Model the fold of this input.
Amino acid sequence: MTNHKVLFWIYMTLSIIGLVTAWVFNGIAVMNNQDYLAAWFGTAVDWVLSADLTVVAFAVVILMITEAKRLGMKRVWLYIVLSGVTAMAFTFPLFLAMRERKLASLSVNSELGASQ
Done:
């Protein structure tokens, strides 16, 4: 199995785990009528974690946009929109999996071009 395939499946597995955990824990929060804002910004520790994840989310979005543009990946905006509806823990590994697929495709295309 090539390195791109291994990474693709690692990222896809992480993406599925991210989606399932988002569904489960958001479901629990909704069923318990929990307040997301109070949970994110209730204490100083919450602020630290929230600010940390917010900065990482911005960095991830910038990386996704620039990397998609560099590789010619289409519809990167869909990952960003989906992260607001599901979770960044789902969409970022999914983006990375699709990036590996694109890199594998580019690698095959360059090998075909070099052999001609």
About this structure: The CA atoms of residues 50 and 56 lie 10 Å apart.
